Amino acid sequence: MDTLLKQLPKIELHLHIEGTLEPEMMFALSQKNNIPIPYKSVEEVRKAYDFHNLQSFLDLYYAGASVLVDREDFFSLTWAYFLKCKEDNVIHTEIFFDPQTHSSRGIDVGEVIEGITLAMKKAKEELGISSYLIACILRHLSEEEGIATLQSLLPFRNKIIAIGLDSSEVGNPPSKFKRLFELAKKEGFYIVAHAGEEGDSSYIWEALELGVNRIDHGVHCSEDSKLVQYLKDKQIPLTVCPLSNLKLKVFKTPKEHNLVWLLREGLCVGINSDDPSYFGGYMGENFEMIAKNFDLSIDEIVKLSINALNSSFLPQNEKKTLMSKIENFKNVTKS
Ligand code: ADE
Ligand code: ZN
């Protein structure tokens, strides 16, 4: 089963590039850029990753990101992530970054985008992995600041496929960003939003009212049967992140996770890694955790990849090409 899971062609749609910063790289960049971090060793960093909720994680995540300064740093970070993708047979990925986490420290957003997109280009050429970039707006900040950030991204319009919404959810509902998302849609971006990670189902309804193309997380939908039916009927994608939900105590134990229930109810769910360096694993480990705790058939495992591919922003012809890779895998497992 483990080898089969490794070989499954995977699509990742919920990955914060800042959340792939491994402690070793954090130390190296802290020294290179002369930015102090409050840890003495890699072991001490890992020990600190003991979160009790989303905010306790975000505090460390933003502090960690402070070591990222120039385009080379963003290139190295993104390239290291692509090497993990190769190991896990991730064939397409849609990567989040948080422009405000860097612009607030005086870092030119153009440098950030340049570093990340250089690695994306190299990954396509050398590893055969396609990717898109999504800029997330920090919801704990004001809508005005978000709109100014959106405007600062317009010169890089052709490098960004979508605008997202992340950070501290409770108290910062999607409706706070109604104008911003109207503007983003007018500019031709797809839109996505974290909703129903810690927030209740009303956050998901509000994100749907904004017209999002996908809901990031969305696991709190299961407390609202009308919402579950709606998500199923409309096949609105949920980009679910099992290890993240466990680390942040959204679910207490692996068996309580509702991903497989949602899949069997017929919702369009996929598996993603969110912030793999902080949550204990990349795509491979997330699939393993679910397979180990639930009696999934090969067809169900493959369906998770098919759902993710259908939910991606790839054009139809590229979806078709990647679908044949997934179908091939299914045929090999059956022969
Ligand atoms: N930023 C990075 N990871 C996040 C998460 N899981 N939820 C909200 N904002 C985030
Ligand atoms: Zn996330």
Automatic annotation (TrEMBL):
Which EC number applies?
3.5.4.2
What GO molecular function annotations does the UniProt record carry, in alphabetical order? adenine deaminase activity; zinc ion binding
Instruction: Supply one GO BP term.
Output: adenine catabolic process
Keyword Nucleotidyltransferase found:
no
Record GO cellular component, one term: cytosol
Q: Where is the Adenosine deaminase domain?
A: 9-327
This protein's record includes keyword Transport = no
The catalytic activity, as recorded, is: adenine + H2O + H(+) = hypoxanthine + NH4(+)
CDD domains for this protein: ADA (cd01320)
- Sorted alphabetically, which keywords does the UniProt record give? Hydrolase, Metal-binding, Nucleotide metabolism, Zinc
Top-level lineage group: Bacteria
According to UniProt, residues marked as the site described as Important for catalytic activity are H217
Q: How is the cofactor bound?
A: Binds 1 zinc ion per subunit.
Q: Which residues bind substrate?
A: D275
**UniProt: Zn(2+) binding residues:** H14, H16, H194, D274
Instruction: Name the protein family.
Output: Belongs to the metallo-dependent hydrolases superfamily. Adenosine and AMP deaminases family. Adenine deaminase type 2 subfamily.
Functional description taken from the UniProt entry: Catalyzes the hydrolytic deamination of adenine to hypoxanthine. Plays an important role in the purine salvage pathway and in nitrogen catabolism.
UniProt name for this protein: Adenine deaminase
Taxonomic source organism: Helicobacter brantae
What is the organism lineage in this UniProt record?
A: Bacteria, Pseudomonadati, Campylobacterota, Epsilonproteobacteria, Campylobacterales
